[in-house]
Structures are given as C-alpha cells and as structure tokens.
Amino acid sequence: MGLIPQRFFYFWPMIKCILNDKIIDQDKAYVHVSDLALLRAYGIFDFFRLTGLKPLFFDDHLTRFMSSASTLRLPCPLGYDELKAMILDLITHNNLPDSGIRMVLTGGESPNGFDIGTPTLFVLNEAINPLPQSHFDNGIKLISHEYMRDIPEVKTINYLTGIYKLAEARSVGAVDTLYHWRGKVSELTRSNFFIVDQYNRILTPAHGILKGVNRKHAITVARDHFEVLERDIFMKELGQAKEAFITGTTKKVMPVVQIDEMPIGDGKPGAVTTKLQQLYDQYLESAVGR
Ligand SMILES: Cc1ncc(COP(=O)(O)O)c(C=O)c1O
C-alpha cells in the first residue's frame, strides 16, 4: 500500500469499495448531485483503522455509525451484521494492511433539496497518512474557537468550521482547533480533549462532544493508574492545568503543550500524559482484532 500515493488512492483501478449493498470498483462509485450530503451537508460517517488487516474496535465504530444514522433518521441499506460481513469481504478483496475504513451514509437524493431521500451508503478503504512523530514526542499547539458542533453526539459529515480554521491554526504554528462554548471546553475538530490537574487527576468533558471510541478506551486504561473525572472543564481552568492531551483514532494519545498564547504546564509533555501514551500503545497492540 505504501507504494500507492494517497492522491491516486480513490481512483486506483484495483481498489474496491462498498456502494449500497455491493462491492464495486472504487473508480465507478458516485453519489448523485442531488444528494443531501452535497447540497446540505446532511449525512453521517465513521472511521476506523486496520492493524494489518484486522479492524480495531470494529463493533464500537459500527455501533456508533448505526446510532448516528438512527439519530439523523437515515435508514441504512444494510443491517449491522450484513454491513460488518461486507466490510470484512472488502478488506480481504483490497488487502491493504494498516489502512483505514470510512463508512458514510448520506441524506440521499432529495426530491426538493431539503427532505431526506433514500440514503446512499458507501464504504471506502483509505490510506492513512502517518502523523509526524514529533507531535507524539513533543506535543502540539492548538488555537481555540468558540463553537459547538451541530448535534455534537452524532458523527456528522459537517466539518466546515474545523476545515475553515485550519489555515489560521497553521499560520501560528498550531495543528488544530479546540472548541469551547459558553465558557466550557468541549473537543477538538476530530479528537477528544483531556487535562491533568494539580492532583494528577485526569479530567475530560462529558457533554457537548462526540463520545470518541479512543476516549472510552483511554479512560478505561487510565482508570487503573489515575483518578479520571468526566465533568465540565472551564476555559479559565486551562491556565492551572499541569498537562493536556487529546485522543482519537489516528492521534491515539497525543500531548498538547500550548493553547493560543498560553503554554500548558511547563510547555512540555507531562509525566501523566507520557505514561498514558505508553500504556495506551500497549493496550492498542493487545486490542488487535477487537
Ligand atoms: C468531533 C470529533 N470528536 C472526537 C473524535 C474522536 O473520536 P474517535 O476516538 O472515535 O476517533 C472525532 C473523530 O473523528 C471527531 O470527529
């Protein structure tokens, strides 16, 4: 897979995808121009990694996908077990180790540009661009922005604000945006957010966020070693935080060392984050195939 540049990946003739209830060549897969996903950003998705050819946290991602679909009133053309079996077939067909699987369900071809149509399901097998090792070793800088995602507990396809803020983040050497709303921190554009307080307790918001699969597993791992509190975090608490970190499918556990102009703690990855990073990497190895 490393031989296929990512920009060719969607059109590589060998690569198959799922469209509705069939596995077809990916370069033949299209959605209609009247699909609500295109016209109104109405749709949901989920994304998981393969370790080798084995899905990581497959059931967690499928369960969240089905729950996002039902919250947005989008009937999925395949049931849970059918979709799972077809994705396993797709993985075998494509034989792309350490790639990613993106499941998308659109609002469908709308009769009037606003009513939900018959949703289109597609599942893509994508290259994963590795993140720079320096992000894991030295931590990342974030900008903050007051914003609450629409229906935040649903993994919608609407990333408008996150993509729009990317140029601004990069212009100040930051890699992503931390959202906050009415004084409370929520999440990043594509990750969950944690701080470590002066008592070495790990705190993470529980409301107004997407409940990340890695958030859940990182909390499980952390609870064996640290106290973990799921509660509101106020923007004004960030100044007293000793450490901060994020979790996500490609970020795993990644330290945050600066938010806007403010260093977190001493501006370096802290001991709790570094310990959890090691524990989580071990946990991911042991979780292969789950
Ligand atoms: C808005 C948002 N929050 C959090 C996450 C992290 O979720 P996960 O750990 O399931 O990748 C994502 C993942 O893309 C996301 O889009």
Description of the structure:
With 290 residues, the chain is α+β, with helices and mostly antiparallel strands. It has 2 domains: 6-126, Aminotransferase class 4, branched-chain amino acid transferase, N-terminal domain (D-amino Acid Aminotransferase, Chain A, domain 1); 133-286, D-amino Acid Aminotransferase, Chain A, domain 2, CATH 3.20.10.10. It has helices at 6-9, 36-40, 58-71, 80-94, 133-138, 160-171, 213-223, 271-286; strands at residues 16-19, 22-25, 43-51, 54-55, 100-106, 121-126, 140-146, 176-181, 184-188, 192-196, 202-204, 228-230, 233-234, 243-248, 252-259, 262-263. Strands 7, 8, 9, 10, 11, 12, 13, 14, 15 and 16 form a 10-stranded mixed β-sheet that branches. Strands 2-1-6-5-3-4 form a 6-stranded antiparallel β-sheet. Helix 6 links the parallel strand 7 (140-146) and strand 8. It starts with 5 loop residues before the first helix and ends with a helix. Pyridoxal-5'-phosphate is lined by residues 187, 190-192, 210, 212-215, 247-249.
Q: How are the secondary structure elements laid out?
A:
Elements (H helix, E strand, L loop, with lengths): L5 H4 L6 E4 L2 E4 L10 H5 L2 E9 L2 E2 L2 H14 L8 H15 L5 E7 L14 E6 L6 H6 L1 E7 L13 H12 L4 E6 L2 E5 L3 E5 L5 E3 L8 H11 L4 E3 L2 E2 L8 E6 L3 E8 L2 E2 L7 H16 L4
Parallel strand pairs: 7-8, 7-15, 11-12
Antiparallel strand pairs: 1-2, 1-6, 3-4, 3-5, 5-6, 8-9, 9-13, 10-11, 10-14, 14-15, 15-16
Bound molecules: pyridoxal-5'-phosphate.
